[in-house]
Structures are given as C-alpha cells and as structure tokens.
Amino acid sequence: MIDFPLERLPPIDEHGTLVLASVEETWAALLEVVRASFRGGAAARVARALGCAQTEVSGEVDSIGSTFPGFIVARVVAPGVLALEGRHRFSRYGLVFRLEPTKDGGTLLRAETRAEFPGLKGRAYKALVIGTRGHVLVVNRVLLAVRRRAERSGLGD
Questions:
Q1: How high is the pLDDT of residue 133?
Q2: pTM to 2 decimals?
Q3: What confidence score (pLDDT) does residue 2 get?
Q4: 16 burial class (0-12, 13-18, 19+ CB within 10 angstroms)?
Q5: Can you name the residues that pair with 100 across neighbouring β-strands?
Q6: What is the Cα–Cα distance from 149 to 127, expressed in whole angstroms?
Q7: What residues contact residue 77 under an 8 Å CB cut-off, 6+ apart?
Q8: 10 Å Cβ neighbour count for 2?
Q9: Is residue 31 part of a domain?
Q10: Is 107 helix (H, G, I), strand (E, B) or coil?
C-alpha cells in the first residue's frame, strides 16, 4: 500500500449514478467490472510504461492487498466501499467506490478520485489526464458498465 492515508490525498472529483438494482447486485457488478477492466495485457503495459508500483494481477478484487495494474486494494467494506490506491512516477492516487441504498431499493454508486501530482512532470501529467477530461470519461464508463451489469443481473427479481 502507499505510505500515507488515502484521505490525505487532495480530492479531484466525484461522479455518481443511480442504479436500479440492490446494493448487493451493484456490489457484485462493481467487482466484476473492476476485475474485467484489468484482463488482458493492455493495462499491464500502461502500468509498466508509467512506472506504477503495481503492474500485475494478484488476488481477488474484494481482498485488501490484492493488486491490479496501477492499483492495490486498500479498503473493502462489503457491500459498501471499495478503495483502490496507486502511484507511479507522476502521481499518487486513489479511487473510492461507495454504494448507498436508496429508499426505493436502488443504489447510489459514487466514485471519488483523490490524487496529487508532484513536480513539473506531475503537473503536466495532471493537465493531460484531468485537464482533457479523459479521466472523467474513464470513470463514467466504469460507472455505466457497473450500472448496466447490475440492472440486467436480475438477482433480486
């Protein structure tokens, strides 16, 4: 894990979506989407190119200490919180997924990003990833994939 608490990283953004499925169905979908996001070699190649501390898959998505290219599982409170942390030569970062039940049996799924970008190269990287809104597109794509998977699962019906 990185050597400081995730909460000490500056907040970057938070995005959310309403999922018309239970918290349990949404949690299962989240784990599968995160797992699927790191299948294949592209994620590992990018992680190596950036100099990420984690470049391989080890363990399960819902186990603290498991790794995925670019991330380590830092916190799991099933079925409510999945926190991923990572670092590479341009940034230290965290991505925290939170699931909250709604009154009508759905789930509010939120993704909070925290990061710091030290030095000139870090600021340039931030401009490239955050400034171009590329990060927003990726996070929203993950949230949409989780929502679609959970809503079509039909586990609670």
A1: 87
A2: 0.92
A3: 46
A4: middle
A5: 108
A6: 32
A7: none
A8: 16
A9: yes
A10: strand
pLDDT (tens digit per residue) in 116-155: 999 999 999 999 999 998 899 999 999 999 999 999 985 4
Phi, psi of 140 (to 5 degrees): -65, -35
- Check residue 38 and give its pLDDT: 83
> For residue 127, what are its two tokens?
């401009």
List beta partners, residue 27: none
Element (H, E) at 146: helix 134-153
- Report the number of distinct structural domains present in the chain: 1
Query: Parallel, antiparallel, or unpaired: how do β-strands 71-77 and 81-88 relate?
Result: antiparallel
The token duo for 124 is 């340039």
- DSSP class of residue 65 equals T
Outline where 7-133 has alpha helix (H): 23-37, 42-50, 119-126
Is there a domain that residue 147 lies in? Answer: yes
State which residues form the domain around 101: 10-152
What is the Cβ-side half-sphere exposure of residue 12, based on CA atoms within 13 angstroms?
A: 24
